[in-house]
Amino acid sequence: MAPQTEVPIGSSAAFGADDIVLPFHVQALDTRGRAIRLGKQLDAILARHAYPAAVERLLAEAIALTALMGTSLKFDGRFQLQTRSEGPVNMLVVDFSTPSDIRAYARFDAEKLAAAGDSALPGALLGTGYLGFTIEQTKLNSRYQGIVELAGQGLEAAALQYFKQSEQIPSALKLAVAEEHHAGGVRRWRAGGVLAQFLPAAPERMAQSDLDPGDAPEGAVRHEVAEDDAWVEARSLVETTEAIELVDPTLGLDRLLYRLFNERGVVVNEPVAIVDACRCSEEKIRETLKQFPAEELADMREPDGQIAVGCEFCARQYRLSL
Questions:
Q1: CB neighbour burial string for 34-60, b if at least 16 within 10 angstroms, e if fewer
Q2: What is the value of pTM for the model shown?
Q3: Pairing mode, if any, of strands 317-320 and 307-310?
Q4: Pick from 16, 20, 73, 30: nearest CA to 258
Q5: 12-216+226-276 falls under which CATH superfamily?
Q6: Which of 150, 186, 295, 315 is deepest in the core (most CB within 10 A)?
Q7: Domain spans of the chain?
Q8: DSSP string for 143-166
């Protein structure tokens, strides 16, 4: 991956654009992070599936989170977010390929979703289950997966739990999704977010209190560690971010970061464009089908002898003769 280039606040028109991730760092607070805003590329992903609004909102949040995390990779590879749960939205899959390609889909139970209602919070839509993050490094053919339990919390809270238990990096995260209504009943979506992480030169400054095991005996003393003052300041500033700021098309991401950290000297890097792109192809599908036994392939064939296969990510339909 190419090294990041520092650029002055307000020097690039791209900072005011949608569908970008903007890396930043605040040296005085030993804090690094990324901000994201999504518009047309997000709409393109969601529109091809025609999900109910509640599902689109939740998937939009997952897409923003995945792009924030995936753009941190310093090598050629993939980053994937996946949930499996018993709630109305029982599966989310968001797949990011460096440096900028993203694709996503969701599965849901229509009856459970109708019972939950349009105002159901993300945690209620997900229910109980797990959230998994998978990192694949292409050249080394290596794969790492971290898993967090879903117990009624939303994606934001679950991701923070992942950072604490798997990466052991103090982190602050804010995500927002907004729905726009246009003439003719057209619905469009915007999403935004900011992720900040405390990365001092001295590792001991990153120490955090242990997670509550949930089964400690009564009267047990919880493990507590005082947060570093620099991180308390950085985290507190991120937590002041309002949802409207994260999705406001008139507020450039660099200006948003300047609002948060100007007294400490925030530096931004070149933005990374986020692109709606699927990796499916007829060749890949043929190779996959060749791994099936002849009996199973025979069951898949339609009366004309062809096999119909649909891509869940981009909804493209393939008809193949084998």
A1: bbbbbbebbbebbbebebeebbbbbbb
A2: 0.89
A3: antiparallel
A4: 16
A5: Hsp33 domain (3.55.30.10)
A6: 150
A7: 12-216+226-276, 282-320
A8: EEEEEEEEES--HHHHHHHHIIII
